[in-house]
Amino acid sequence: MPIVLDCEIIEDTLYDNGARRDTKRRCKIAVEAPYLIKKIIGVDVVFFIQKNFLDMKTRTLSIEATNESFATRVEIFEKCRYYAHPENPDWTCFDQTATLDIKNFFGIEHSMEKMGMKQYTQTTLKGKEIIEYFVNELKQEGITHVDRWPAEETVNSTTATQANTALPEKPPLCRDNSILDADYIAKYLGQLTPLQESKLVQLRKRFEHGTSEHPEPDYQTLLRFLRARDFSIDKATGMLQESLQWRKEHRIDDILSEYKTPAVVEKYFPGGWHHHDKDGRPLYILRLGTMDVKGLLKSVGEDELLKLTLHICEEGLKLMKEATKLFGKPIWNWCLLVDLDGLSMRHLWRPGVKALLRIIETVEKNYPETMGRVLIVRAPRVFPVLWTIVSTFIDENTRSKFLFFGGPDCMHAEDGIEQYIDTDKIPSFLGGSCSTLIHEGGLVPKHLYKSESIEESNGAIHAHDHHGLYKAVDLKPGQLFELLIRNTDPKSVLTWDFEVLKNDTLFAVYHTEKELEPSGNDDFSSVFDAPDFKEGSNYKKIEQSVKCRPKEGVQGSHEMASTGTYVLQWMCPPSCDGPAQLMYFHEILSSANYKGSMTSLQSGFSSNSLQSR
């Protein structure tokens, strides 16, 4: 490439008996720019750092390049990958992506952006030409074939008869087709009890007559559906049959080859794949706090966002198989890191939450047991409000995999994300040193909106949309309803979400160190009306009373710093001309799952008066 003037190898390391090679270079690049721009920036050359990751076992070459020159003004990150075609191993696939973020560049940011995109486009077009150049150069040297790296089992082999012992992805059944090959289980499925193995074989027999159009599910898929239904063959069969029918109706098997990412999603959706976690799981990062939920929904619609999610899930399935081969152990789920920095009440816009709930429901039904760990980082005060709303729709087993980090420094805090992600793979926006293609998102310009018909009910999704998960309460004028919550887990978080359906309602939260019992049949008295209680002495109000009007929703949370009894109290004011009606839901976030500061949490309103920004 003419623009590359020189390359200096800084690091060059071999691993696994030469199977893997990591090379780091410092490259001098000629600046192809008009004379005036060269004069302004004062240089004719710039320097880039290039990292090559060659893996002969998996037949992949990944190349990452970042700019060293003007790094404080411009961030350039380019990644390309060569790999064997998954279906035809004699073919080579090549993909290339790049980001350009110009922060401040001598007042000529727009010109630099146009020049950078032009340069990148020209370089990309040379990709095939460069490959063919080196292939022809090898031919001239008499090299037309290079032996593939031997299978892992044969690297230290001393006999020629052991030349190829790689395990098939479809294992042979042993002993009258009643058990699986033990080596296959260890390599692709992980530890199974004899009973679990037997149920897996039985489930496979129910789906063994596949067709070319609808092939039989592989063992990894069967195992995921079995785990999701506690190894009940009948329940797993029903769930998998419904999912296979859904895949057929929506052409899910073709989504990886046919899906085209909309331009607005490419530019404003802040999510993407990023290396692996410490357990080898593919890692997906979503910067939800900087995502313009309303803008994306109005630009591409709910169906398109669902299709984007399904494409990500299908990519995840593919990456899990690649990781299984790469690390030589079963990888049957992936890791999700959600950055909530910037999350606010605008993210609780009702159509956005409804779209999220639809996505969660679809993924839970059709991609069970694919989520190995979920890291929620930089969670702000409003987060428990959103969690209260959506957590009831997430499978209990999946919810147990969530870890929450509330402070701004999620990297270095005690038991921070360094426990789960290698330090050199933590993204720079979280305090790490690793560059990433995942951008910040940002507001979608309104001229890109295609739909103004999306419901403009500002705030969170209403309680009556939760299909019976909320409880209803009717209160006569002057009547109280108190929910007593015993806490034995200091630093846990109490969250609530309720909607007033009829007449005004007063709401407050109290705490006492005493263990309380309900006040009995007198619904017009509080537990604190007993003579031995005195406010400020042995109980206190920890959330000031707020008046909630009809059709207003209130969401809030409070860190339960101490043990004792917490009381959520609703009251219909005596001056009301009729009874009040409300629907409520509450949940406790355990301190074991929440890692970080959650002090000074505040309630939030979602009503027709709340402006969605």
From TrEMBL:
The keyword Mitochondrion applies. It is found in: Mitochondrion. GO terms for cellular component: mitochondrion. Keywords: Mitochondrion. The keyword Mitochondrion applies. It comes from the Eukaryota. Pfam families: CRAL_TRIO (PF00650), CRAL_TRIO_N (PF03765), PRELI (PF04707). PROSITE patterns: CRAL_TRIO, PRELI_MSF1. InterPro entries: CRAL-TRIO_dom, CRAL-TRIO_dom_sf, CRAL/TRIO_N_dom, CRAL/TRIO_N_dom_sf, GOLD_dom_sf, PRELI/MSF1_dom, SEC14/CRAL-TRIO_domain. This is Protein real-time.
